[in-house]
Each structure stands twice: as C-alpha cells, then as structure tokens.
Specification:
3 helices, single chain, 83 residues, mainly alpha
Length: 83
C-alpha cells in the first residue's frame, strides 16, 4: 500500500488530506465499504493490519461533520485538490 495510514483522523482537514492521498495513490474506495470487501489490485494490496486500520479510519471520517462521498467524487473527477 502506497498511502501512509495515520493512527487517527480527528478533523475535516485530516480527512480530506487522507482521502486525497488515497485517490492520488489509486487506493480510494467507497467510504461505506469495508477494506476487506475491496478487490485490491496486486500492486496496492494492503495487509490485514492495514485493512483493519483503513476500516477504523473510515469510521472516524464518517463520524465527522463532513461529506466524504462528495470529496472522493470530486477528487476522482479532478475538480477538488488539496495543496
């Protein structure tokens, strides 16, 4: 896995940065999905430990007052960038 997984996500800015990293590394997926349900390409296959952490991070993101779906959609369609 290319993306460095943080230990926690507590702010909208951290969530946006993390989702941007996932998109930039070709590792983004639907926030409602479990990382264990994703068919990962061989080059980015996360370990079981990383998949557990991805699920925890997505849960933290979903708990924020923030729309991760729109952010991912915009990132995929190259309309939203974080410097």
């Amino acid at each position: 896995m290319k993306t460095t997984l943080p230990t926690k996500i507590e702010t909208v800015e951290e969530a946006k940065n993390f989702l941007t990293d996932l998109c930039n590394n070709g590792e983004s997926y639907h926030p409602d999905s479990s990382a264990f349900d994703i068919v990962w390409p061989n080059i980015v296959s996360p370990t079981i430990k990383e998949m557990k952490q991805l699920d925890c991070l997505m849960d933290m993101i979903m708990a924020l007052d923030f729309d991760p779906y729109k952010t991912i959609f915009d990132l995929i369609h190259n309309e939203y960038y974080i410097s």
